[in-house]
Amino acid sequence: MHPLGSIIATGQRPGTCQFRFGRSPRAASLLCACLAVLSPQSRAHFQELIPSTEIVAAAADRELRMELRFTHPMARGPVMPMGEPVRFGVLGPAGREDLLGTLEPANVDGARVYSAKFTVERPGDHVFFVEPAPYWEPAEGKWIVHSTKVVVDAFGGGGVWDAEIGLPVEIAPLARPYGLWTGNLFRGIVKRNGQPVPFAPVEVEWRNDGSVIPPADAFETQLIKADANGTFAYAIPRAGWWGFAALLDAPEPMPGPAGEPVPVEQGGLIWVRARDMTTASDSPASRAAASGGETSDLSQAERNHGAHP
User: Fold this and answer.
1) What is the pTM assigned to this prediction?
2) Measured CA distances, 279 to 54, 285, 286 (Å)
């Protein structure tokens, strides 16, 4: 919660106010409006589409598990309920495949989430994508639709890592979205209906494993803008999963819960994973030999990620 909210909040539902300011109802209304903006409800929403690995290098990793959640990744929640996605699939060596029937619903803290399993059959890049059902955000009075993708490489086959799915809003990567070291510069183009969007806003968040406590709200979501050609860049400062969300206003409204026209936030997201560069003496094989057992190739931050809600 924002410091101001932590001082004077009284536990009321979002959008209500229980403060009294004598004969100045206008002051009370202004303060309540500020609290609504500064509340946790205003944190960035991110559709997660996270595979069990971004690189399939061994036969044991061929069975991928995909986790789909709508949440605030840096804040580690809360998780918002998802409706059944409109589209879920993969573009890979076998072409485009519809995976909607593989989705398995579950509940996390009372909110609907989804997961799916996919077995890699051929070498090459696999671009997984989801177009979720619209999510109604009452605190902002709008629908949110975040079309999301992630790229998994299988056995070094390469191929279509920069392929576009044809999502309403989409980030076309200019840097290969896997095999990234911590500190690499990730670049992409924001597109709507296949055309670059000049000066598009892009939000960036790290999928927090609990090892980082942001010193202020401004550190939770990094804000950048694309240039006149729709191109943006971001230097990845830490190992783990990073979400890039290009957020645009839809050209047409949708009917709200009461039937009135309301705005729609159209998002195009891509998830990438960075890993720490290790020295020869700190490689998995060297650590395994020194310890007499097997060692994971994940960074310490990623090993902690099992605690992510």
Assistant:
1) 0.80
2) 21, 11, 10
